[in-house]
Fold this sequence. Notes:
The chain contains 7 helices and 10 strands. By secondary structure, it is of the alpha+beta class. It folds into 2 domains: about 10-50, Leucyl/phenylalanyl-tRNA-protein transferase, N-terminal domain (Alpha-Beta Plaits, 2-Layer Sandwich), CATH 3.30.70; about 55-210, 3-Layer(aba) Sandwich (Aminopeptidase). The two termini are about 35 Å apart.
Amino acid sequence: xxxxxxxxxxxxxxxxxxxxxxxxxxxxxxxxxxxxxxxxxxxxxxxxxxxxxxxxxxxxxxxxxxxxxxxxxxxxxxxxxxxxxxxxxxxxxxxxxxxxxxxxxxxxxxxxxxxxxxxxxxxxxxxxxxxxxxxxxxxxxxxxxxxxxxxxxxxxxxxxxxxxxxxxxxxxxxxxxxxxxxxxxxxxxxxxxxxxxxxxxxxxxxxxxxxxxxxxxxxxxxx
Length: 223
């Protein structure tokens, strides 16, 4: 049964943990994101937890910038980027990616199924990076997230080739600019996000921005 209501986000603890349990039905996920909340399993004992952290990570598109090394990469790369062409592979690769700061993955089978359903319902997107070699196309990186109206949130990235996930993020941000989107929710600020202009804002400011965002209409954008 879909979640009807979450506790007030002010009740989140110092780590941002707001609630435990529930489900990942499409309506539950929409209710969460529209309230500034996102799921993040934290252990086998707590396989489904909901967070509303303070502070919150974003990329203000007006502050977005490219590291010099990435600019050089852009000028010579043969990688190509597509949108929404292989959502399931992206989220599964994100789940399998090894990360220095994590012992395991928070992208559980339940998360995978929930976001695949969210994608099919029209509320989640993927960005894929490809490399052609010997006439064959191979996916070498990507990211996925949610899109509700003109609110965009990034969930996770992965790469097999250097800079492949950064290229996906760069391409997404350039596309969002053309759509009139002014900021991207990143939930937290990772080193990659920080290198491209990501910053932290208070939860109150995040909720104020969210209140000014069209989150009533929702569909996968026509990338």
